């Protein structure tokens, strides 16, 4: 299980790697890295992916400084204490309940 505090500490310490996919998705969604980091720093874990490779990951729900919802997937390397932003998107209200739970 990835602890949100570890991810937030890494973000605050600027120990961040960003995947190409995350760069592409952020651009497509019109999100700046600063907005994504803000949302994670003030967000909450809504799904855990403990078996993700190469590092455990989690889905964080947060909001931009303007209050727009953001979902971001972060992986945490326990040894180096770095995080990787795997992907990011603006959640679709048709697929999410209160931005926190997937609709069936």
Q: Uncertain runs with pLDDT below 50, 5 residues or more?
A: none
Count of helical stretches: 3
Into which percentage range does the β-strand content fall? 35-45%
- Whole-number tally of structural domains: 1
Helical fraction equals 25-40%
CATH class: Alpha Beta
- CATH topology category name: YaeB-like fold
Give the helices and strands as they follow along the chain. HEHHEEEEEE
Name the average pLDDT: 96
- Total count of strands: 7
Main sheet makeup: 5 strands, mixed
Strand order of the largest sheet: 1-5-4-3-2
Find the structural class using helix and strand composition. Answer: alpha+beta
**Cα Rg:** 13 Å
Overall CATH architecture: 2-Layer Sandwich
> How would you describe the shape?
globular
Distance between the termini: 24 Å
Q: Explain this structure to me?
A:
The protein is α+β, with helices and mostly antiparallel strands. It has a single domain (4-92), classed as 2-Layer Sandwich (YaeB-like fold). The chain is built from 3 helices and 7 strands. It has a 5-stranded mixed sheet. It has a two-stranded antiparallel sheet with strand order 6-7. Strand 2 (44-49) and strand 3 form a beta hairpin. The longest helix has 10 residues, at 20-29. The two termini are 24 Å apart. The model has no long low-confidence stretch (mean pLDDT 96).
